Amino acid sequence: MGVTNKNRFSGYVFAIALLVVNLWVPAQAVPEIQQWTTPNGARIMFIAAPSLPMVDVRVTFRAGSVRDGEHMGISRLTSKLLDEGAGDWSAIEIAERFDATGAQFSSGTLRDMAWLSLRTLSDQKEFSHALATFKAVLTQPQFGDNAISRIKESMLTSLKSIEESPSALGERGFYQALYSGHPYASPPSGNDEFLKSATAAQIKAFYARYYVARNAIISIVGDLDRKAAQVLAEDLVASLPQGERAADLPSVTALEAAARMRTEFPSTQTHIYIGQPGVSRLDPDYFVLYTGNYILGGSGLVSRLSEEVREKRGLSYSVYSYFIPMEQSGPFQMKLQTRNDQVDEALQVMRDTLQRFIDDGPTDKELGAAIRGITGGFPLRIDNNSKLLQYLAVIAFYDLPMDYLDTFPSRIEAVTGEQIRETFKRRLNPKRMATIIVGGQG
Amino acid sequence: MLSRKLLSACLILFASSTAAGPVHEYHLQNGLKLIVKEDHRSPVVVSQIWYKVGSSYEVDGNTGLAHVLEHMMFKGTKNLGPNEFSRIIAENGGRENAFTSRDYTAYFQRLESSRLEVSFKHEADRMSNLVLSEEEFQKEVKVVMEERRLRTDDKPKSLTYEQFQATAFTNSPYRNPVIGWMVDLEQMKLEDLEQWYRSWYRPNNATIVVVGDVEPEAVLALAKRYFGPLKPGTIPLLKTRTEVKQLGERRITMKVPAQLPYVMMGYKVPVVAHAEVDWEPYALDVLSAILGGANSARLTRDLVRSSSLAVSAGSDYSAFSRLNGLFLLDATPTPEHSTAEVESALRAQVETMSKELVTGDELDRVKAQVVAAKVFEQDSGFYQAMQIGRLETVGLSWKLLDEYPHRIRAVTAEQVRAVAKKYLLEDQLTVATLQPLSMKKADAMGTEN
Q1: A382 close contact with B: CB closer than 8 A
Q2: Quick check: B146 and A339 CB within 8 A?
Q3: Residue B264's beta-bridge partner residues?
Q4: Assigned CATH for A259-439
Q5: What integer pLDDT is reported at residue A441 of this predicted model?
Q6: Are the folds of B11-226 and B250-438 the same?
Q7: Nearest residue of A to residue B91 by CA position?
Q8: Domain residues of chain A, as ranges?
């Protein structure tokens, strides 16, 4: 503990300095984001956060399940194998090395992206020990046969756990219904057929294609200066080949007709998903749709959907609607769960609530409350290192403007009721939505 | 603990060694405790109010009351209509929710820091002016039943855990699920909730924890203004219901439509609040970390990585519950292996712990993790407030947070072996096995119009 005292002390002084500053500076001040590109083409995003003696690093690749193709699950399989033996170290040695300094390593995949994250103390000894391990995992994974067969088995088990969860089944079916023929249809968890047959050569080829500098974004938040961040980033990616940025994804086509899929499941509740392709991250309608959806189903217990479904009728514990912005149009989704014999009523309430919102838009009162709520809560979105790290990764991954956070409140304040009405009418079509129902007989 | 000594608002200040500011503790005259931790990194604040009451305060036939009351706390007061509290918080850009556990019921708001008053004003209102209406109750108890279906009834592992607890404990209230048995929810009465609210929702049964960009004295002034006028009550005397001694191993089989088999094991163990030997809970904590804590822990190393017996295996122990609890182990076997095989492997691991000393490297790793976690957790004001509130509400003190790393560092390999030998005994063990039943009906996926 002694070794970190110096950092702690400086952190404490900083905290007091910040307190004084806060009396004069508007609360919404966004920390300064620095960005640059390494010689071999990786994009770096950095925020200095010296008040706690710790550093967060996240390396993000355009290597999510959209890159799977026929090999369904290979992006996740590759990601899970990174720390199962790398450089000269076995899986157990890697785990021991991270744990020896209390560092936290994780990796994961979604449809668009794959990432590796490290949280470590910033004290030199702990920091360099954790970094060396992280670098090996990032740049020299072994993809050994034992590890491959074990992780395949673990992923096959995850597929089975999806089969015993009506919500996971519903979610998977929802994407399949929305994105037929598009890479977004392919579940990040993969399928049995590929996972049983996957080979080391296939995994190594996937890694070699996508885990390259020009396809990488490194986000850093923590107790280090720009120079140290630069050294860290260059050291991390120096041994990654330059490679090429992954190709842009094909655009998504709208559903041509309503689709309805019902899956029998031995559960007491039925899970309902309704939706259609929604917006991409760079869509000019994004802020209007986000604000409108806050009112419709995005504001927890006070949304219209919650009011109609839960507060008035007690039909469901959890009811939401979302636009999930992705590289291409991510889904608009409404979901709830209800006792099997209440499915028809719940469906009706969901549809009516959506239709009424599309027809009439929000009231002035609702819009005012939404704008005050979203902007008033803005400081909560960026109040710690974890959240800042997330934003850095998202801003760079989706090529959002560098002032995305600074302008966020004003973009929301500019939204009008008429824009919401017009945009929802244009963008959502309840007659061409997919409805996924998983549950037991009522 | 039952009727707090009334102190005039006196300040106890402890200079903590952490980067987040010091912690300030205040007592209002009506018995309300206020704990403020400064964290000036961002202009935000989290405010949590913790009531010293949870599902372990319930008696049989009335399970689920603490949690249903938590839901009803959002249903209006003499001054606000149903759900209006939530609207006010949302309109102020706040996030809010509440949670109920065996030992506590807590409500929280996260806000931009100049708006703390909104939280205090309305928490004080619903502490004394709650309106419990039959109409709102009838709807909300349905919501809670849906919550129960979602969290427990349709989740094979959760269902197994629920009946495992009910088997492991004979008369301790920890045998009942926090959300309540469905049959108790079905028969719950508004009068039960009224009584619950009157008994426990009093300033002298509550602790407010505030962490964030605030001035402690200003928070105290706000608390005095809004909570100061509230009248203390007589808090019911809680019978101890100490768990009877277990006299032999217990086993249950759960046959549930599912895909994956699963084993859960639990040994009766003491916690800090009741430990006869003060270092024992900390040694159990280290034992749990060495077996199933981080990625390098023994269960993952031996059952998952080296032998492919299990897809996953873990352990769990909480040293800070109100009543004595369980040291838990669980595992999901790989398809080539049975639950019986992973169970024997888990037992063999336990036996090794009681016979052999853990290595110095293992101990060092656990201690390094505790030191690092202490730094990392300061990134979350919410988590810091959670830790303070949890300790205070189970009858311990937030000061244990600063003491904890020292207690863990003091644990020796001999102590780890000693607690394994003393507590992880077959006669104190309960085992639940999840045996999947066919889910046949689910196989047919069809399209209809």
Answers
A1: yes
A2: yes
A3: B330, B432
A4: 3.30.830.10
A5: 86
A6: yes
A7: A373
A8: 31-237, 259-439
Q: How does pLDDT run across A116-171, given as a tens digit for each residue?
A: 999 999 999 999 999 999 999 999 999 999 999 999 999 999 999 999 999 999 99
Q: Please, which residues 307-326 of chain A have a Cβ atom closer than 8 Å to chain B?
A: 307, 310-318
* Closest chain A C-alpha to B153 CA, distance in angstroms: 7
Query: Above 70 in pLDDT, residue B205?
Result: yes
Backbone angles phi, psi at A316, to 5 degrees: -150, 150
Q: Give the mutation candidate from A16, A192, A372, A383 for the B interface (greatest B CB count, under 10 A).
A: A383
**Bridge partners (DSSP) listed for residue A326:** A280
pTM for the whole structure: 0.93
**Which backbone phi and psi does A172 adopt, to 5 degrees?**
-65, -45
Residue B147 to residue B70: CA distance in whole angstroms: 13
* B 218-237: CB under 8 A from A: none
Hey, is the C-beta of A373 within 8 angstroms of any chain B C-beta? yes
B334–A157 C-beta distance less than 8 A: yes
* CA A175 – CA A160 distance, rounded (Å): 18
Q: For B281-298, write each residue's pLDDT tens digit.
A: 999 999 999 999 999 999
A-B contacts at Cβ under 8 angstroms? 243
Mean pLDDT of A382-386: 97
The yes-or-no answer to whether A31-237 and A259-439 have a common fold is yes
B158-196 confidence digits (pLDDT tens) = 999 999 999 999 999 999 999 999 999 999 999 999 999
> Does residue B70 have an active-site annotation?
yes
pLDDT band (50, 70, 90) for residue B441? low
A6 close to B (CB below 8 A): no
End-to-end CA distance of chain A: 60
Domain range B250-438, CATH architecture:
2-Layer Sandwich (3.30)
Q: Do A98 and B144 touch (CB under 8 A)?
A: no
Contact yes or no for A293/A320 (Cβ under 8 A):
no
Question: Would you call A102 and B372 a contact, using CB atoms and an 8 Å cutoff?
Answer: yes
Q: What's the topology of domain A31-237?
A: Cytochrome Bc1 Complex; Chain A, domain 1 (3.30.830)
Token readout for A238 is: 């120096």
What CA–CA distance (Å, rounded) separates A40 from B101? 52
Confidence of residue A29 (pLDDT cuts 50, 70, 90): confident
Q: Is the pLDDT of residue B313 over 60?
A: yes
Q: Across-strand partners of A47?
A: A221
Query: Do A160 and B260 make contact, defined as CB atoms within 8 angstroms?
Result: yes
Paired residues of A105 in beta bridges: A118
Counts of helices then strands in chain A (DSSP H, E)? 17, 11
Q: With CB atoms and an 8 Å threshold, state whether B149 touches A269.
A: yes
Domain boundaries in chain B? 11-226, 250-438
Residue A415's SS3 state is coil
**Highest CATH level, class, for B11-226:** alpha beta
pLDDT in tens, A183-234: 999 999 999 999 999 999 999 999 999 999 999 999 999 999 999 999 999 9
State the catalytic residue, choosing from B25, B38, B58, B70.
B70
Q: Does B380 touch chain A (CB under 8 A)?
A: yes
Would you state the structure tokens that stand for residue A223, as one six-digit string? Answer: 């107790």
Asked if A192 reaches chain B (Cβ–Cβ under 8 Å), the answer is: no
Query: CB distance B257–A378 less than 8 Å?
Result: no
